[in-house]
Amino acid sequence: MASGGLQLLGFVMAFLGWIGIIISTAMPQWKMASYAGDNIVTAQALYEGLWMSCAMQSTGQIQCKVYDSLLKLEGNLQATRALMVASILLGLVGLFVAVTGMKCMKCMEDDQVKKMRMAVFGGVIFIISGLAALVATSWYGNRVARAFYDPFTPVNTRFEFGSALFIGWAASSLALLGGSFLCCSCPRRETSYPPTRGYPKNASSTGKDYV
């Protein structure tokens, strides 16, 4: 019963992490214009994401522009896109696999060992999905930090971490923890002993005893 609760907790955490990864990928606030130092801009706030760049006016109006061409983008941005999309697709596969192996589901009830192995396999997929998202967000954040502290970067073009990065870090951590909890439901190998053979009973003599 305890393993079933741990399995359910792991599935919920992994599912919430997968949803968070989707939200992080779609958000345009991967980095935002910095207002540190002399870079004080009160008219608008600038954001950049994986798919578009946005500007929010002081009136609250937001204008976004989708990137024109995929070939004109930086290689680092294309790699980050690919990792996040791969993380989402892997999480989708892990979702279906883990649901098949959940104890509360009726499918594959005739073979509990295979059912638990499906849950473990789904947990492994969720771990890979979380690692892909963690690498993508950390790589992007490292580039933002290096550009911010680079003395050759103009002050008016410096960016800081956006909210999408923090959501991506939290979501990837949930996916990793949830996948690890699912892997904890791995069936233990029981030591099998050969069946004991009973000694044959002495056959009762049917013949007559002679004195």
From TrEMBL:
Transmembrane segments: 7-27, 79-99, 119-141, 161-184
Superkingdom of origin organism: Eukaryota
Membrane topology: Multi-pass membrane protein
Compartments where found: Cell junction, Tight junction; Cell membrane
Keywords: Cell junction, Cell membrane, Membrane, Tight junction, Transmembrane, Transmembrane helix
UniProt xrefs under InterPro entries: Claudin, Claudin1, Claudin_CS, PMP22/EMP/MP20/Claudin
GO molecular function: structural molecule activity
Pfam hit, one: PMP22_Claudin
Gene3D superfamilies registered for this protein in UniProt: 1.20.140.150
Keyword Cell membrane: yes
GO cellular component, one term: plasma membrane
UniProt keyword ATP-binding, yes or no: no
Protein family per UniProt: Belongs to the claudin family.
Function: Claudins function as major constituents of the tight junction complexes that regulate the permeability of epithelia.
Identification of the protein by name: Claudin
